[in-house]
Amino acid sequence: MILRSLLPLFSLFLPFVWVVAADTQPNVIVIMADDLGYGDVSCYGATELSTPHIDRLAAEGMRFTSGYCSASTCTPTRYSFLTGTYAFRQDGTGIAPPNSPALIPAGTTTIASLLKQAGYRTAVIGKWHLGLGVDEPDWNGLLKPGPLEIGFDHCFLLPTTNDRVPQVYVQDHRVLDLDPADPLWVGKKKPSEDHPTGLTHRETLKMDWSHGHNSTIHNGISRIGFYTGGNAARFRDEDLSDKWVEKSIKWIEEDGDQPFFLFFSSHDLHVPRMVHERFQGATKLGPRGDAIVELDWCVGQLLDALDRLKLAENTLVVFCSDNGPVLDDGYKDDAIEKIGKHQAAGPFQGGKYNVFEGGTRTPFITRWTGHISPGVSDEIVCTIDLAASCAALAGVDLPSDGCLDSMNVSAALLGKDNAKGRDHLIQQDNGRGGNYGFRVGDWKLVRHDSKKTRNTGLRLQGRPVNRFELYNLAEDPSESRTVMKEHPGIAEKMKQRLAELIENGKSRN
């Protein structure tokens, strides 16, 4: 067992190349859930709620048991997914504030620009949270650079994340339905003494805050940050998912001659969990469980649209998440009180904000009707690999200076016989200079530069940690017992190799 699990460690010093020849350019839809854990859907073991549409996707495609995002928070995972480069290589890629400038510079190679090069039309619809503008967003003017400057033809966005201001849609380069006579202002400080906030007007809230989310109130919910104006442009939280689905299906229907790439960027499980009225009370788990059901509905709507348009046999659908689960993330919505038997992270320790397996190992499913035989795979695949893998399927070469950590694992994604996924993966928590996880085969090294981990309401979190810990995931998937003392040689090799990969600036040959 030890010899077999060591082989991937030695292979880190060998070239990593997998090539797949596709006889057609598939449409690509990446459905990225938000804060969805490994155990949050029924095809991954959830018993306290049902996700029939996600289960259908798994039953008709490949369900991965070692599918990962690259970070345990949203902004760095989304950065890495789009650019194919680990976010820890770039300053400023931690959780983006409301007035963040664009974190991906105009002209950067992305999955969207690669597929556009191959003749695809491209769109991102849903949560963005990667900043807009040069120094900060010009909320009343042109919001650029943004998605359209990195390969997307169209975008319809929640510009930040919905617990941060402002609550408006951005369509292409402008705030949708903004009245020039009522300009939008977004800032860090309270604009006036009488400005209502979650602190001063707490009794008016329809969802109370637990920590940090107590600034400007919109729709009975206080947020992070302050804003005024833009009243005609503001949306209702309950309508977000319906809007994403509506806009996505309309965009898919616009032109049937070109292949397309759609990044469907969900927000359902992220706080504040204020789902549409028809999903409220759908589960016994409270708003967080109801949000999972709403997400499942979104998946069903997209699959039904592909069937109606007869596109299922030429569309690769990838379902994933931007990080693992969190229960209390700033609002009092009974996520902890009503969790019951539900194991949001499945058998794994941790969740959002940390580098244990629960933070980055999430549901990961691929379906391409007629091309992927239904099954289950234990190959290691990651959202950061979708850039290189989709480029390979579309027949586009990667530039030498782009997608520095994206591996072509398209053969594994398609479930090809004897196809291999990644032989190693670096996991991070948030931004640059944080904590790292390093998986090589069955071995997992945890490097806690902060020497601490955050408690977000999930089991085994918040405990004291050593800077370095080593786990054998085959024997201890919950990372409950470090084996540093038993295997000092393996630990030392992994410590050295992780440091080299971080310092080298790239991991793709």
List keywords for this structure.
single chain, 509 residues, alpha/beta, Alkaline Phosphatase, subunit A, ten-stranded mixed sheet, four-stranded antiparallel sheet, 10 helices, 17% strand
Write structural notes for this entry.
By secondary structure, the chain is of the alpha/beta class. It has a domain at 2-87 and 240-426: Alkaline Phosphatase, subunit A (3-Layer(aba) Sandwich), CATH 3.40.720. It is built from ten helices and 18 strands. The strands form four sheets. A ten-stranded mixed beta sheet has the order 6-5-4-3-11-1-12-13-2-14, with helices on both faces. Strand 5 and strand 6 (174-175) form a beta hairpin. The radius of gyration is 22 Å and the shape is globular. 53% of the residues are buried.
The overall average pLDDT, rounded, is: 94
Radius of gyration (CA) equals: 22 Å
Total of helices: 10
Total strand segments: 18
**Separation of termini?**
29 Å
Tell me what the CATH architecture of the domain at 2-87 and 240-426 is. Answer: 3-Layer(aba) Sandwich
Order of helices and strands: HEHEHHEEEEEEEEHEHEHEEHHEEEEH
Shape: globular
Low-confidence stretches: 1-5, 13-22
- Beta-strand portion reads 15-25%
